[in-house]
Amino acid sequence: MAKFERILLKISGEALAGDLSFGLDPERVKALATEVAEVAATGVQVGLVLGGGNIFRGVKAAANNMDRVTGDHMGMLATVINALAFQDALEQLGLPTRVMTAIEMHQVAEPYIRRRAIRHLEKGRAVIFAAGTSNPYFSTDTAATLRGLEIKAEIIAKATSVDGVYDKDPKKHADAVRYLEIGYTEVLSKALGVMDASAVAMCRDNKMPIMVFDLKVHGNIMRMAMGEAIGTVIR
């Protein structure tokens, strides 16, 4: 039986690229969508925020010479492309899905309205929140936290390329130690960098737990939803 009734799952754009340097890997998208659909089939209400790095990396060289606000808006639009691709993959699996964007584009997706989003979830639809918060200078981590709080999710689940929060970068230090549980303040004071500081602080101020886990391990999304002790819990 699932531990959570409603979750907010954050998936990086890079995860959708698979082994590609940028863009969308259809097989990877399908595999992730299958895991999400299996979780939804247990009755868990699933909200998602997808990053845009897999697409934005492809234009990063050009964006380096651009105004920061322009670059951030390009990143927001990249998340919409990913959201539409993921919506298609979920609906091919039989899971009704709605894309809601913070930047209005009525021909493409619904505008984000909190009460409507909650209603979609209550009806068993997955909801993908796209275009960040519509504001520059805010990451998709912050957008995920904001949407998670707004829809009253029970946990923010951040799926990453590592299996939790470490005391130092495990890719650079062989002796790095993984935490099973850690406090918000310690994450911030040690600048552990697993999530944007603004997102961690927002979760701390609203007592929203964060679970950081490895997306590369098949079945981890389900394990997270079941409340298994995978990754690191920040609370």
Describe the protein's architecture and organization.
It is a single chain. With 235 residues, the protein is of the alpha/beta class. It has 10 helices and 11 strands. The strands form 2 sheets. Strands 4-3-5-2-1-6-10-11-9 form a 9-stranded mixed β-sheet, with helices on both faces. Strands 7-8 form a two-stranded antiparallel sheet. The longest helix is centred in the middle third of the chain and has 25 residues, at 68-92. The relative contact order is 0.16. The mean pLDDT is 93.
Q: What would a concise description of this structure say?
A:
This protein is of the alpha/beta class and 235 residues long. The protein has ten helices and eleven strands.
The level 1 CATH classification is Alpha Beta
User: Which superfamily, in CATH terms, is the homologous superfamily?
Assistant: Acetylglutamate kinase-like
Uncertain runs: none
Under the CATH scheme, the architecture is 3-Layer(aba) Sandwich
How much of the sequence lies in strands comes to 15-25%
Neighbour order of strands in the largest sheet: 4-3-5-2-1-6-10-11-9
Structural class: alpha/beta
Subunit arrangement of the protein: single chain
Rounded Rg: 17 Å
The count of helical stretches stands at 10
